[in-house]
Amino acid sequence: MKTVVVLGGYGIFGSRVARALSATEGLRVRVAGRNRRRGRELAQEVGADFAHCELETRESLLECLEDSQLLIHAAGPFQDRDYSVARACIERGMHYLDLADAREFVNGIRTLDESARGAGVFVGSGASSVPTITSALVAEVAPEFSAIDSIQIALSPGNQNPRGASTIAAILSYLGQPMLVWTDGAWQTRHGWGDRTSLEFPPKVGRRETYNCEVPDLDLFPTTWGASSVRFHAGLEFTPFNRVLSALAALRRIHALPPLERLAPLFLRASMWFFSCGSKNGSLAVWVRGRDERGGLIERKIALVTDDDGPATPSSPAILLAKKLLLGPGLEHGARPCMGLLSLDEIRRHLEPLGIWCARSDKSGRWSAPPQGQGLVR
User: Fold this and answer.
1) Which of 269, 268, 270, 244 minimizes the C-alpha distance to 257?
2) Every domain of the chain and the residues it spans
3) Is 355 exposed, middle or buried (0-12, 13-18, 19+ CB in 10 A)?
4) Element housing 141 (H / E)
5) Cβ burial 210-232 (10 Å sphere, 16+ → b, else e)
6) Whole-angstrom Cα distance, residue 180 to residue 135?
7) Residue 183: helix, strand or coil by DSSP?
8) DSSP state at residue 140
9) CB 215 within 8 Å of CB 221
10) Which one, 93, 206, 260, 274, has the greatest CB density within 10 A?
11) Could you read off the pLDDT of 137-163 as tens digits, one per residue?
12) Secondary element (H or E) of residue 303
């Protein structure tokens, strides 16, 4: 029996990871975190153990790692985190995964590659929507291109999906802040939650506003696919929220506001007043443009669409990679961003029973229709 520690295992995403792995034969789960009440309640509910853990205290962290083979770090946000947890795992000779979406954190995990290889363990960052799922979506359509010119990625969750303060804090951290974006073959400076763009997502989601979002894909994808432009936008279903964040971003650009991350709990409470607005429908979509084998210009669109449980999508890579690491076939030792480790088919097979389906563009460029009942659109 292999033991998995899920740090932050009672949160929005961590609880889904803990629940799925607790139901997996051959695995035992230990929920870890500082909130004893929430941790014990979730552990009892899913049939796991609980360990109190204070990340700032090394002794507390090492104690919760006892007799385990993998730690999954779901206690975000990761924008200001260091690699102390990953280093502790390497020292203990155990694997490490996290659900980080912070650009510098995910891309910087390679600094641990030598020590991870020496310890014979896998250390992976970004086992979530970005860059694990986004890279799988691009990889699915990439063989249709002789050359890729641009990759546009966008995320828009449904307003009625659960959210936590850590997710909001991550958004607040880059509002109005300068960020480098690879555009027309050069790095250009844009600003977080700027460049409002209206995008047409697949049916049940439709047209929504999106804005600049800082994610690791902005660094990883230009090199991987040789694209001249890579953009990532995100937007909320409830338009007034987008406009408020856009206004705050504009104020941050002129230094009229202090950092807002500490106000995440307040923003969370305010957002819940409007929870009944909108829907649960959300999407993670990719638009790829380039040339086919004959040199003609083509565009391909592909997306995951959720009808009900939005957080199931970002939590799925950690679940699937944990099973690979502990139950086979395993992953090559070393430290790197979690990119190219799961195929879209693997992700789809996991998400299909949860009501999450795949949409593609047809020959006319229109999105494919939702499936009848549960099922996936090819």
Assistant:
1) 244
2) 2-128+313-342, 130-310+351-360
3) middle
4) helix 134-141
5) bbbbbbbbbbbbbebbebbbbbb
6) 20
7) strand
8) H
9) no
10) 260
11) 999 999 999 999 999 999 999 999 988
12) strand 297-306
Query: What is the distance between the alpha carbons of residues 96 and 250, in angstroms, rounded to a whole number?
Result: 38
Copy the structure tokens of residue 44. Answer: 């009892």
3-state secondary structure labels for all residues of the chain: CEEEEEECCCCCCHHHHHHHHHCCCCEEEEEEECCHHHHHHHHHHHCCEEEECCCCCHHHHHHHCCCCCEEEECCCCCCCCCCHHHHHHHHHCCEEEECCCCHHHHHHHHHHHHHHHHHCCEEEECCCHHHHHHHHHHHHHHHHCCEEEEEEEEEECCCCCCCCHHHHHHHHHHCCCEEEEEECCEEEEEECCCCCEEEECCCCCCEEEEEECCCCHHHHHHHHHCCCEEEEEECCCCHHHHHHHHHHHHHHHCCCCCCCHHHHHHHHHHHHCCCCCCCCCEEEEEEEEEECCCCCEEEEEEEEEECCCCCHHHHHHHHHHHHHHHHCCCCCCEEEECCCCCCHHHHHHHHHHHCEEEEEECCCCCECCCCCCCCCCC
Cis peptide before 222 (omega within 30 of 0): no
User: In 3-state terms, what secondary structure has residue 74?
Assistant: coil
Is the preceding omega at residue 329 within 30 degrees of 0, hence cis? Answer: yes
**Interatomic CA distance for residues 212 and 195, integer angstroms:** 6
CB 42 within 8 A of CB 14: no
pTM above 0.70, yes or no: yes
CATH 3.30.360.10 for domain 130-310+351-360: yes
Pairing of strands 282-291, 297-306: antiparallel
CA angle 169, 170, 176 (to 5 degrees): 95
Per-residue model confidence as pLDDT tens digits over 222-252: 999 999 999 999 999 999 999 999 999 999 9
Assigned token pair, 371:
């499936």
Residues 6+ apart with CB under 8 A from 241: 159, 271, 274
Take residue 95 and report the two structure tokens written for it.
């694997």
The mean of the pLDDT values for the chain is: 94
CB 355 within 8 A of CB 348: no
Q: How many degrees, rounded to 5, is the angle at CA 230 between CA 173 and CA 278? A: 55
